[in-house]
Amino acid sequence: MIHQLSIRELRDAITRKEFSITEVVQGFIDRIDQQEGKIRAFLSVSLESALAQARALDQKLAQGEIQNGLLTGIPVAIKDNIVTEGVATTCASRILENYIPPYDATVVRRLKEHGVIVLGKANCDEFAMGSSTENSAYFTTQNPWDLERVPGGSSGGSAAAVAAWEVPGALGSDTGGSIRQPAAFCGVVGLKPTYGRVSRYGLVAFASSLDQIGPLANNVEDVALLLQAIVGADDRDSTSVERPGEDYLEDLGKDVQGFKIGVPSEWFSSGLDPQIEQAVQASIQKLEGLGCSIQEVHLPHSEYAISTYYIIAPAEASSNLARYDGVKYGYRHPNAANLEDLFRSARSQGFGEEVKRRIMIGTYALSSGYYDAYFLKASKARTLLKNDYLEAFKEVDFLVGPTTPSLPFKMGEKKTDPLEMYLMDAYTVTANLAGIPGLAMPCGFSQEGLPIGLQIQAPHFEEAKLLRLAHALETELAVQRPTLAVDR
Amino acid sequence: MAISTQEVEKIANLSHLRFTPEELQRFVDQFEKILEYCAQLEALSTDDVKPTYHALTDELETPLREDQVKPSLSTRQALANAPDSTDEYFCVPAVIE
């Protein structure tokens, strides 16, 4: 079945002319037709234009106008907070329901230059704020392993679409775990690159000092392929960084003998699901078997991570989301009495509850009289959290642990208590605060058949080595995928 | 950490948001719970700690570029998503009587 093939396999099949690009794209469209009613991973699909692009690429290949490149003809999903020229980009919010971007995000432009075909825009939590897609203003995406459970978030649509084989790869964004947590919940591989590694131009801003775009796919090599296509400095994002000549593919398959693995004791404290703990510990033993050395390390300020993150991220969000005023784009109430009323009605009716909550918390943390106690205090705590990593990375090359404290939860289970939902991010937010890369990958399945995600974090700009380790572990674990709920 | 309804109203005002009385009450309760949790930071000694606003300050210099005109969005494109516009302007309700 075409839809079960990896990006690498699809590329090789296209090169060997086993399939045309049109056949590949049609294979995924058939899969979407068959599964999307159950998964609901997409806010919009562009199937006809995808087929037209596929036919055009086939013709160009046949006539020798282009060579088959890294990702020529590979279909992907793009999270709906990444802008796509001429294709609605809503951020899963009512306030941008009718927004048609006049330009492509740099990552989308780069993918298209590599011949990638965008099949659709993936559902997410509104403005990427949430851990379950339940904050989408439109609908909640189902977890393909258990349709009563959430796919995680905020990039839940991207992760579910990849897990259900509706696309072989996708882009998401990660501000506090929004690629890694849904990757863990859906049993796929997801990478949050180093801050600055990938241009944020065209990523609708949530928290600018934390946001980073990254790939999701069904295996480590496919994630490396997608990363290779999107990295690099961009004139339009002054925080993007050029590291020329880096190849994320050439070290895949090499041994990992002598790599030093740190296991932070703080990540295995109370609150961690025993099945996750067991699967992650078993994986750490496998790493030891591969010749890695394992040692316990400490991240002594971990307990302050959630507080720090849930002050800094909302503070930045309250500033970034000030642009939604009903004037330049987005929802406007038809009967606004005056300009002030126009702003207020657009924002009050356009934003959902969680987005309003974060704008309020952020405004409070930045407001006169509370700035020092909240925003400044959290920014100092951020320094301590970052220093924890710098100290740990003096001793070890990587940190390995769980991605999430719990298995995918049921829809509605945590929706009423925002704080309980925030605590789901305990192992992921620190990578964003410190700007380091983090990768989530499946390391097993629970007794209920739910995926378990392992996380690897590495020092700044060590993605190539990180992917090498993840690839070695993936090969060693050879996790057997049970049959998807949607295929049973 | 108690927070008053008036305080939450003030923050709503600063945020250009409006809430119904029921929404506001629910909000006060959640707000209180979240702030209570975040108050754990008070226990952390940060007297000699510099704040971090950007994770990679050491890596990044302030990037400067040549001041050159480059292609950008046309006026028509920039106005295309506006709920109300004329040939060259975004339109809003009159602000001057």
Structure keywords:
heterodimer; A: 488 residues; alpha/beta; 11-stranded mixed β-sheet; 15 helices; B: 97 residues; mainly alpha; 3 helices; flat
Could you please describe the fold and organization of this structure?
The complex is a heterodimer of chains A (488) and B (97). Chain A has 488 residues and is of the alpha/beta class. Chain A has 15 helices and 11 strands. Chain A has an 11-stranded mixed sheet with strand order 1-3-2-4-6-5-10-11-9-7-8, with helices on both faces. In chain A, strand 7 (260-264), helix 8 (274-289) and strand 8 (293-297) form a beta-alpha-beta unit. In chain A, helix 9 (305-320) packs across helix 11 (353-366). The longest helix of chain A is centred in the C-terminal third of the chain and has 24 residues, at 372-395. Chain B contains 3 helices and no strands. Chain B has helices at 5-14, 21-38, 75-79. At the A-B interface, helix 9, helix 10, helix 11, helix 12 and helix 13 of A face helix 1 and helix 2 of B.
